[in-house]
Amino acid sequence: xxxxxxxxxxxxxxxxxxxxxxxxxxxxxxxxxxxxxxxxxxxxxxxxxxxxxxxxxxxxxxxxxxxxxxxxxxxxxxxxxxxxxxxxxxxxxxxxxxxxxxxxxxxxxxxxxxxxxxxxxxxxxxxxxxxxxxxxxxxxxxxxxxxxxxxxxxxxxxxxxxxxxxxxxxxxxxxxxxxxxxxxxxxxxxxxxxxxxxxxxxxxxxxxxxxxxxxxxxxxxxxxxxxxxxxxxxxxxxxxxxxxxxxxxxxxxxxxxxxxxxxxxxxxxxxxxxxxxxxxxx
Length: 282
Ligand SMILES: Nc1ncnc2c1ncn2[C@@H]1O[C@H](COP(=O)(O)OP(=O)(O)OP(=O)(O)O)[C@@H](O)[C@H]1O
Ligand SMILES: [Mg+2]
Description:
six-stranded mixed sheet; about 280 residues; 2 domains; binds magnesium ion; 11 helices; Rossmann fold; alpha/beta; binds adenosine-5'-triphosphate
């Protein structure tokens, strides 16, 4: 399904912040075109630092990052940002224009488009994100969820090949999460590669086929989400909060109910209970 050469290739990557904090240690990683990958791990594990190396916001102190088989060390942030769009944890760190409309226009500035084209694309994207009604409003006067949406819109309008989201579901209500899920489905259908940092294990289990677990600046596990997340030792090590359904299953197990493969979703639990009921009634 995937092309041979990874779209993101990271080799022996290390990063030490100027204050001496070693945030990344010997990271080796391949991500292929069209993949939807999750990065999980406890606070301070190095997740945000890792993705900041993808568009040159921080430059490796060791090792290399390749995008589309090219070493990015000599490429500017402006060039890389056209290929790699990062939506950060706190939207206010990336919003600075005087109005919602200006925010999108600014984002399109470096694309050599005519004034009319910029206006057209801005109107389209504001419509897509249901932000037209706030067009003239300052981004500072949006709600948390709305500002996150604007931050996403200001990156999506640039149509980057690789999309990176840092904690997209944090603080979002059910409707906003649904909007986001549809958005990533759409972007994937358009062939985009998507990387999502999340602490939300239920979200990862349901939507992300591959998960990378990080701890202390290193990758400690990388594989199919269902495999990675059923490892109790790793889950504890990375301080992830288990879904309630999984906690319920573990409680059943402690009380002597038979062991089965990982139960992470409601569906898994329903099938498991059906099996138990069938066994006890036969
Ligand atoms: N600008 C900075 N200067 C110095 N140290 C930093 C800086 N940013 C992050 N760090 C440190 O680097 C390490 C990795 O931080 P990073 O932000 O990458 O973690 P994270 O996995 O994204 O955590 P979280 O889940 O809390 O967002 C931490 O020890 C952190 O304190
Ligand atoms: Mg972070």
